[in-house]
Amino acid sequence: MNVFYRGHIIFVMTHAQIELFVKIADTGSFTKAGLELNMTQPAVSRSISTLEAELDVTLLIRDRKNGIMLTDVGKRILVLFRDILQSFEKVHQEIASEKGLEIGTIRVGAFPVASAHFLPKIIKVMAEQYPQLEFVIYEGTIDEIKEWLETRVIDVGLIIPPDDEFETIPLFRERMYAVIRDDHPLQNRPVISVKDLSNEPLISCKSGYEPPIVDLFNRARVDLRIRFVVRNVNSALSMVQEGLGIAVLSELSLWALPPNVLKKELEPEAFRDIRLAVPSLKESSNAVQTFIQTARKLFA
């Protein structure tokens, strides 16, 4: 309900309403949200209707064809509600920390290579020290991770620059290599000059490879001829294996090369930086701060 106090409207919203709205947005379903929160379908509908009446705006549109959709104001409020829930989480963590405990949930976003290489080791160390911590992993592209950070879907992400919109901490620098088929004319070169790639068809991968590759070719003053653009590393390696072009990939992506594929060092050298990113270091919870400290001890 709305409470009027000295000419101002004070919105009275419960933690349960806020949590339910966020859960509906995440699952895209009243039914799924109700199941996860142990609520009946009528109770879910009643709670959301009450919330919309209190705020005097429509947050969700129920469409039989497209399912649940957020209105424009619903999208903006969703970000604020995520912040509110994170603030509740930080309160619980502060209280637990005062009692010598470390509790909470850490929502981490990472692109596939980073997820496979970094997260298992970080989580293993943290789980041994803080068994009451919980982890939720989101895998996606660099652009998806940045969007999840902006909308507060995740607490911390592993991303590739540019990253000016977030606070970031350097985590790992990996070398970039030219990847060619073993019958390519450059196969016997121990180091491949970027200038030798000026007339070669390049296979570009979207998983955070574009900025360092563009920088590499700019530094060498060589035109970049991209023939194919793929979404993931495995697709790029398969296309190299079929002789469709050359790829420039990072060392973490090349731990298991397919048959007939070689990796070669580049001249000039090229690197890709992987960073931990948060919307705000100051506002990050104790659990997220511990995650960052653990990651840096292991890999920085």
From TrEMBL:
Keywords attached to this entry: DNA-binding, Transcription, Transcription regulation
Gene3D superfamilies hit by this protein: 3.40.190.290, Winged helix-like DNA-binding domain superfamily/Winged helix DNA-binding domain
DNA-binding recorded as keyword: yes
PROSITE patterns in alphabetical order: HTH_LYSR
HTH lysR-type domain boundaries: 13-71
Transmembrane segments: none
This protein's name: HTH-type transcriptional regulator GltC
Recorded GO CC terms: cytosol
Example GO molecular function: DNA binding
Recorded family membership: Belongs to the LysR transcriptional regulatory family.
Encoding gene (name): gltC_2
Pfam families: HTH_1, LysR_substrate
